[in-house]
Amino acid sequence: MSPETSQNDRPLTETGRSRLQRRTVLVLVFAQVVGSVGMGAMLAVGALIALDLSGSDAWSGMATTMITLGAAVFALPLASLASRSGRRPGLALGWFFGALGGTVVIAAALAESFPLFLLGMLLVGAGTATNLQARHAAADLATERTRGRDLSLVVWATTAGSVVGPNLVGPTGGLAARLGLPDLLGPVLLTTAGFLGGAVLIAVLLRPDPLLTATAEAARAERERGREPEGRVGLADALRAIGRTPAALLAVVGVVASHTVMVAIMTMTPVHLSHHGAALTVIGLTISLHIAGMYGLSPLVGWLADRVGRVPTLIVGQVLLLVAAAVSGTAGHHALQVTVGLVLLGLGWSFGLVSASTLLAESLPAGVRPRAQGVGDLAMNLGAASAAGVSGMVLATVGFGGLSLFAALFTVPVFALALRTRANTS
Fold it and tell me: 122-126, 305-309, 394-398: which range is least confident on average?
């Protein structure tokens, strides 16, 4: 029997649970900082590398498409691995595949192979999936009073790496040049190193595993009540649980809508700015400020979700997304207005993701929660991948304003479900 299993067999006192939760959040925060350091930079240059390799604006959106599709592809396998073996192996393996993807992207750029580039970006999506799933690990041992705060702290931790990353486009480009590589591969080197560092931190430090500990505690509580704990659930069980629980369904739709709107607009922003003559440093700064909006205020968002409620916070997020689409969509060639719109877009995403993820974590029992969270992450990334996939064509057809309007339509189901949920609970 491993030390970790032995730890899970011992009942946790309230003090012990609180101490373990603080340690878990701290480890996740460190891993997020390291693992996300290159992700913002990759977002800033991915579309530009795709444009160079494909020679087409319509295909340039495939960079973000493949990242989000990769996040969708890896979401359920990583969640299933977590359900069987705990958060630690799932998160560490996801970061590792992300690092492998960065290596493939570098090889593709050197070989001038667009298909190989797409494969690399698909693997990079595993890093994105891991970045997203880390927030669920923060909720495993959290109490209802602090669940939103703890989850949001892990989301916030991405700020340091992701905001710094796009501003390293220039310096890492110089490093790449000294290594005999194209300038745009500098951020890819940074992404690869960050993912590998995140994998090592999780593998070494995330002990005891928060999900295994929480599951053991829930099973022990069931036995004390004279009931046998539920066995391991499958995908179909998770889908049924979401469908029959209005709050869980709203949470899944809310996180899908928030992520889809954000990705659809953000994907084509570098291309839109480039078409209007913006320098690479301006594009990097815009994406950096956008990511600051996504993550920088997430602790405040988590506090609001705990104090005001999950659903009201989710609705505020959808309103912010609508305002962001209006601001960026009417900006034309004004880079400053585009930047303001992108900051609001990131803030709306933060409100949506934190509140909906917290709502999902507390709407379902512990046994079904990991797979349901995997379903939610799969759906949000499939939605975002689909939106990103058509964003280049939409931009080419109706312009950036039309693309922003197209993205804004995804908020409608959230408002409808929120009204229905409120009617059912009133």
Answer: 394-398
> What is the tens place of the pLDDT at every residue in 78-115?
988 988 889 999 999 999 999 999 999 999 999 999 99
Count of CB atoms within 10 A of residue 203's CB?
Answer: 17
Query: Helix (H, G, I), strand (E, B), or coil: what is residue 61?
Result: coil
In this prediction, residue 231 carries a pLDDT of 61
C-alpha of 422 from chain center: 27
Helix (H, G, I), strand (E, B) or coil at 21: helix
Q: What residues contact 78, with CB distance under 8 A and at least 6 apart? A: 90, 91, 93, 94, 126, 129, 130, 133, 374
Q: pLDDT of 158-170, one tens digit each?
A: 776 666 766 676 7
Separation between Cα atoms, residue 232 and residue 216, nearest integer Å: 13
Token pair of 418, please? 């929120």
Three-class secondary structure of residue 132 per DSSP: helix
Other beta carbons within 10 angstroms of residue 276's beta carbon come to 14
Query: For the CA atoms of 213, 134, 199, 97, what is the dihedral angle to 10 degrees?
Result: 120
- Name which CATH class applies to 12-425: mainly alpha
Is 363 within 8 Å of 376 (Cβ atoms)?
no
Which of 120, 88, 48, 83 has its CA nearest to residue 279? 48
Q: Which of 346, 318, 376, 328 is nearest to 135 (CA)?
A: 376
DSSP class per residue in 271-330:
HHHHHTT--HHHHHHHHHHHHHHHHTTHHHHHHHHHHT-HHHHHHHHHHHHHHHHHHHHT
- Considering just the CA atoms, what is the radius of gyration of the chain in Å? 21
Q: Is the pLDDT of residue 237 over 60?
A: yes
Q: Where are the domains of the chain?
A: 12-425
| Residue 41: its H or E element | helix 39-54
300 contact partners, CB below 8 Å, separation of at least 6: none
Q: What CA–CA distance (Å, rounded) separates 308 from 80?
A: 33
**Which pLDDT tens digit goes with each residue over 331-369?**
887 888 999 999 999 999 999 999 999 999 999 887 788
What distance lies between CA 110 and its chain's CA centroid? 29
Query: Tokens 């029992």 appear where?
Result: 365
